[in-house]
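Archive entry: two folds, one per protein. Generate the first.
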Amino acid sequence: MGSNKFFKGVLLGAAAGGLLSLLDRTTRQEMGTSLKNSGNYISTYSKNPQRLVESSKEVYEKLRTTADQVSRDIQFISEKVDEIKGMTPQVKEIIEETKETFEDSSEAYKDTFSDRETSNELTTQDEESQPIASSFKGY
């Protein structure tokens, strides 16, 4: 019983709002134009129902074509995602190999440079063998 009053109230409110909006001249003119156009469409399609069927078929074909294209696009994206998922282990393996190579190289560099003196100073024998160091000896 309460819902019956609710829907009556909604309909009365909508009608009152519609009537109040028609107080504006521009709104009245637009509504008049819209009603005339709607009347023309209804009149045209009621006189030529075959035209309505053809128009509906065109819209249906456009929607079906669009749906097919969207379906193909989704399938393509899904395939690419699967390819990426398949590539992930390969990429991970390449990164691991690269990491191991750098670690091995790092160890090799440490071994090479740890054999040399830990001091950064040049001895007199090293200075004489270095062309740049020996050229600055007098300065």
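Generate the second and append.
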Amino acid sequence: MLNALFVTFIIVSFAAYFYYKTKQFRTSLPIQKKWYKAKAGVALGLFVVFFGLNTFIIQDTLLGNIVGVVFVVVGLMESYHSYKRAKHEGKFVQQEYELNKQ
């Protein structure tokens, strides 16, 4: 049951990553590109976290636990760093849009 939940989260986070990467390539505004890149980084970090948590369930060995811990730590670091970037750059997206609208 828990495995199915993590697989669902893995699929959703990968879909969010793909969505934001597509939005990043389709926009022409530089700050908005960085904002979408940061949002994609959050989704990618969550993907890695859920993959690591799923590894704990599937691989119940010492090596599986070590790999799971590494994935969770790396994923949390990526998500946290990307979240901070997205929060910072999100402040300027509307302002950039207004300046380039004219």
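Annotation attached to the second fold: The helical segments are 2-26, 30-58, 62-101. The chain has a mean pLDDT of 93.
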